[in-house]
Fold each of these.
Amino acid sequence: MLRRFMPSPAMVVALVALFMALGGSAYALVITGASIKNGSVAGRDIKNRSLTGKDMAGNRVGGGAIKESSLGPVPSANVSDGLTRYAVVTGAGVMARGRGVSSVARTAPGRYQVIFDRDVRGCAYFASIGDVGAATPGMGDIATRALGSNVNGVWVQTDSQAGSAADRPFHLLVPCQ
């Protein structure tokens, strides 16, 4: 009597096929960092734009992986940020050319004030006697210091070879950090 309630082999195969079709045979695979062998994931294994800054620990992407030739020309910080100021000044105290200069004034024979567009107290001052064109400048000495009355200013003194105050053309370079 029990045999009557037993499914036939064809019915068993049909039911298994039905359950497989409805339920599927897929299973979930969980991949963790521990299950990946070091050095086994290559760049081609990662989908483009799928990683973000949050996915990477600090200082983990090394510069060795970036070809310098792919970056193009990278200007120095002084050029790109405009942190270097300069002035080329005539002996009469007139600016011939410059960068970041607000004004130039001759205050006395051989004494000049060069005012820049920012605070230059933390900068270095380099000056030399030099013509504004292609002529040879007269010989002499030059000295610089911060201008006490203005944080944006540099005081320049030019002297003759004999050491007395004399108007001389000069070049002033003021690199800042």
Note: The chain has two helices and eight strands.
Amino acid sequence: MGRYVIELMKYATIEDVARHLRMSWDTIKEIHVWALKRKFKKKRISQVEYLGVDEVSVRKGHRYLTIVVNLETGEVVWAARNRTAASLDRFLKRLKRARAPVKAIAMDMWPPYIRAVLDNYSYEKIVFDRYHIISDYNRMLDELRKSEARAAAVSEKNVFTGVRYLLLKGQETIQDDVQARQRLHRLLAINHALNIAYILKEELRELWNCTSRSEAERYLTDWLKKAWTSGVLLVIKYAKKLAGHRVGILNYFDHPITTGMVEGINNKIKVLKRRAYGYRDMDYFLLRIYFIHEAKYTLTG
């Protein structure tokens, strides 16, 4: 019966399984917890080479979990409460004790995570995720759009309406949409700051098309010079942040990894949370996350 319960839990919630087997909710959970703990003890991290780190929001009020994924197997190898340096540091110390041959860790530019990695490894292990970098730039670009819209003349206010997605999307996504291109061109034609920031955004996206680290280093240096002399304060501020992390950005060309796989698992975690109507027992929730890649149901269970 125990094995049958475990198999069913790959497809359904505790409530579904309990109803199907006419057993109590608590009994199904106890069986599942016992099985997960037993499997967890067998998990090995001594061969891990490439890792992806990200946070996932699990509750309102900025409640996060730190998730670490083995990028070669797709397995969650660490899940911890919060997104502090301590949340990640405990796992990295375990990796060092296990003498895991870690080559690189993909992550965003969240300072606590950076601090945790640098307390245990060198900067050469960090690979800043390209999609998070562009996402950060887009947040800055949207902030600039709002600021420029507030300062615009009354006669120009309508030009700033409904253009947010045009600014933030890649240029190629609106290439075949004549109306969208015209609206974007109109906005950029009347606003110098947004025009400069938009051009620099598209040029920054091209960085990861470089074919070598040396080429990427020259490209990034040139881009930073343009940003620093742009005259747009928000762009200059962003460029200073990027310059401080250039080693981690350029490490991508030695280890071309991203946190994309972690993002996919984070989406599964959110679905798991919704299907279970939230988790009051966080220890059990964390245990389930460790084996979420085994779930056979399309949306995970």
Note: Confidence is low (pLDDT under 50) at residues 297-301.
